[in-house]
Design a protein that fits this description.
Number of strands: 11
CATH topology of the largest domain: D-Maltodextrin-Binding Protein, domain 2
Number of helices: 10
Helix content: 25-40%
Largest sheet: 6 strands, mixed
Strand content: 25-35%
CATH superfamily of the largest domain: Periplasmic binding protein-like II
Radius of gyration: 18 Å
Strand order of the largest sheet: 2-1-3-10-4-11
CATH architecture of the largest domain: 3-Layer(aba) Sandwich
Order of helices and strands: EHEHEHEEEHEHEHHEEHHEH
Structural class: alpha/beta
């Protein structure tokens, strides 16, 4: 194999990290690489790319359908004490700073935005949280698909909707890039933690090369330049992961499906 094609299905504001990883794998392994920004998980299902930055929910969803095109090899550890040096993240529940809401439960009957239905942080974990609250029969007054976390953030900041659950990494980057968001938003709850999105390598890739991708990711933080480029996405380092690390996501999906709670409402 003389070329590795990478695809990202994740938030645009973390793109610099995906680009850094793509370039570093090419440099260290002496192989041509390219990064494609994808908009549909159909290409993931068809196994079009050798390496994917993919949300854990579609990974688990495809697996449940008997489709296993790729295997998780590594995942990021985010900077900050709340992550405890583990490959986890949260879904931070945001409202407008001037809104009266003080908890997730205060949003009963209010409007809610999510990024897209194959997002664990924006959709899957919210659905599971509602299940645990025994609120499976129309908790929100209105549910709106925003398309991207960044769009949902701005909808809440602009008072177009009352609340949303946002990937904690994406939210932190957005607030760094636009300090004004911190003046417009307030976090009232945190759902999770959940195992963070994996870097998954196609099973078509020979195992030695698959291991090389994993080892390159894990070693990036040892190099000052690599560490700086990861830091642009608030990533401290990458650590090895495997399919079993996503059992928490499987459990949430299983619980919601067993209860017949398949749509956020």
């Amino acid at each position: 194999m003389d070329r590795l094609r990478f695809a990202t299905y994740l938030a645009p504001n973390v793109l610099p990290v995906y680009q850094a990883v793509t370039e570093e794998v090419g440099r260290r392994l002496g192989i041509a690489t390219e990064l494609v920004v994808e908009t549909s998980y159909e290409s993931c299902e068809r196994d079009e790319y050798e390496v994917c930055f993919v949300c854990s929910l579609p990974y688990v969803t495809l697996e449940r359908r008997g489709i296993r095109p790729a295997v998780p090899v590594a995942a990021p550890v985010l900077r900050g004490e709340r992550y405890g040096g583990r490959p986890i993240y949260f879904s931070d529940v945001i409202v407008h700073r001037d809104a009266p809401f003080r908890s997730f439960e205060d949003l009963r009957g209010r409007s809610w935005a999510f990024n897209e239905p194959l997002s664990h942080s924006g959709y899957g974990v919210t659905r599971y949280h509602l299940l645990r609250l025994e609120e499976t029969n129309g908790f929100f007054g209105e549910v709106v698909e925003a398309g991207f976390h960044e769009t949902a953030i701005r909808m809440v900041a602009g008072r177009a909707v009352d609340g949303s659950a946002i990937d904690s990494q994406v939210l932190a980057i957005a607030m760094l890039e636009d300090p004004g968001l911190g003046q417009a938003l307030r976090v009232v709850d945190a759902l999770g933690p959940s195992t963070i999105q994996p870097v998954a390598v196609s099973r078509r890739v020979p195992e030695p090369l698959r291991n090389g991708v994993r080892d390159t990711l894990v070693a990036m933080a040892e190099d000052p330049v690599g560490r700086e480029r990861l830091g642009a996405g608030l990533v401290e380092r990458f650590v090895p992961v495997g399919p079993g690390d996503y059992d928490d996501i499987r459990m949430m999906v299983d619980a919601c499906e067993a209860a017949g709670f398949t749509e956020l409402r």
